[in-house]
Design brief:
Shape: elongated
Strand content: under 5%
Structural class: mainly alpha
Largest sheet: none
Order of helices and strands: HH
Helix content: 40-55%
Radius of gyration: 25 Å
Number of helices: 2
Number of strands: 0
Length: 67
């Protein structure tokens, strides 16, 4: 039969390594966000609204007429 791998002893190590990896990524993003210069923050805060999108009830193509 196949031999089972015993991972119970190293499970806490994997858990701590995963937590430290996730925490370091989060801290890195937060650090870069806090160090951003003001013009870059203003450019990012308006980023989703830079492109013109149609209103909710308006058809996307203006050549389409309602019947």
């Amino acid at each position: 039969m196949f031999r089972r791998l015993i991972l119970e002893d190293s499970a806490p190590l994997y858990t701590i390594a995963a937590f430290l990896t996730a925490a370091s990524i989060f801290c890195s993003f937060a650090w870069h966000a806090l160090r951003m210069k003001r013009p870059q923050v203003e450019r990012f805060e308006n980023l989703p609204f830079d492109t013109a999108t149609p209103a909710a009830g308006e058809p996307a193509n203006s050549s389409v007429t309602a019947r």
